[in-house]
């Protein structure tokens, strides 16, 4: 895991957010997402600078669409967001969980 993923994992693990169980490095079809809550069908990705090229942006967009077509809700954050304002990231995740519930 990257440093940003480790930081977010510490906030997600052990049912720390709305008592929801998250798994890390979870396979969905031929893809692997950083974090996944099976009960809510919620996938979370944390992307670094390697995801900023035109090809990577297209790949990520296609990948996200395929995952969403399976009925899975998808949240994407960037490393900078996690490092600079982890509380805002957590708040966004909490809001999405409440929306799903």
Topology:
Elements: H1 3-12, E1 23-28, E2 31-37, E3 42-47, H2 54-68, E4 73-78, H3 79-84, H4 86-100
Parallel strand pairs: 3-4
Antiparallel strand pairs: 1-2, 2-3
Can you tell me about this structure?
The chain has helices spanning 3-12, 54-68, 79-84, 86-100, and strands at residues 23-28, 31-37, 42-47, 73-78. By secondary structure, it is α+β, with helices and mostly antiparallel strands. Strands 1-2-3-4 form a 4-stranded mixed β-sheet, sandwiched between helices. Strand 1 and strand 2 (31-37) form a beta hairpin. The longest helix is centred in the middle third of the chain and has 15 residues, at 54-68. The radius of gyration is 13 Å and the shape is globular.
In short:
The protein has four helices and four strands, in the order αβββαβαα.
Using the coordinates above, name the CATH class. Answer: Alpha Beta
Q: For this structure, what is the CATH homologous superfamily?
A: VSR Endonuclease
Number of strands: 4
In CATH terms, what is the architecture?
3-Layer(aba) Sandwich
Question: How much of the polypeptide forms β-strand, as a percent range?
Answer: 15-25%
Q: Which structural class matches the secondary elements?
A: alpha+beta
The count of helical stretches stands at 4
What separation lies between the terminal Cα atoms?
A: 28 Å
Rg is 13 Å
Question: Which spans have pLDDT < 50 for at least 5 consecutive residues?
Answer: none
| Helical content class | 40-55%
Strand order of the largest sheet: 1-2-3-4
| Main pleated-sheet profile | 4 strands, mixed
């Amino acid at each position: 895991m990257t440093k940003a993923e480790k930081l977010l994992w510490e906030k997600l693990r052990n049912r720390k957010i709305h008592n929801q169980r998250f798994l890390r490095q979870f396979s969905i079809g031929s893809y692997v997402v950083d974090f996944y809550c099976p009960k809510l069908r919620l996938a979370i990705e944390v992307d670094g600078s390697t995801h900023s090229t035109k090809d990577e942006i297209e790949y990520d967009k296609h990948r996200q669409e395929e995952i969403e077509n399976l009925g899975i809700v998808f949240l994407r954050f960037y490393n900078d967001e996690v490092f600079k304002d982890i509380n805002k990231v957590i708040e966004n995740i909490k809001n999405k969980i409440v929306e799903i519930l």
